[in-house]
Amino acid sequence: MTLSLPRAERISIFASALVYTAATFAVATSSTPAIAADGPYYTAVLAQPTDENRAVAGGVAWACKGTTCVANKGTSRPIRMCRGLSKELGEVASFTAKGKELEAGKLAKCNGK
Fold first, then answer.
1. Do 74 and 58 touch, CB atoms closer than 8 A?
2. For the ranges 20-24, 27-31, 65-69, 91-95, which has the lowest average pLDDT?
């Protein structure tokens, strides 16, 4: 017994895989991370300007310019996102998640103090 799909089904599966691969490649190689229509979920101000335009920290893609970095929502708590960014780009002066600023004690933990 041979398990095989009819020719038309094989072609449609191949076409679907090709479209998915092209879409994934386009998103992965885009010049800037996609920011939600209502603005970024996370906004961080670094203590020192960064030379990096883009960075991956805390499992999300960050877009940075000067001392300001923004990103879409990730799966971790804000303190963990902040800590990941701090390890990647340096000390964070302020960190906001969904419009709510991280309090001073948590910001100190973010920076490892």
1. yes
2. 27-31
Q: Strand 92-97 vs strand 68-71: parallel, antiparallel, or unpaired?
A: unpaired
SS3 54: strand
Question: Bridge-partner residues for 60, per DSSP?
Answer: 57
What does the alpha-carbon distance between residue 58 and residue 74 come to, in Å, rounded to a whole number? 8
The separation between CA 14 and the C-alpha centre of its own chain, rounded to angstroms, equals 30
Q: Could you give the CA distance from residue 92 to residue 89 in angstroms, rounded to a whole number?
A: 8
Using only C-alpha atoms, the chain has a radius of gyration, in whole angstroms, of 20
Residue 67 to residue 84: CA distance in whole angstroms: 16
**Surface-to-core class of residue 10, CB atoms within 10 Å of its CB (0-12 exposed, 13-18 middle, 19+ buried):** exposed
Q: Please state the rounded mean pLDDT for residues 88-103.
A: 94
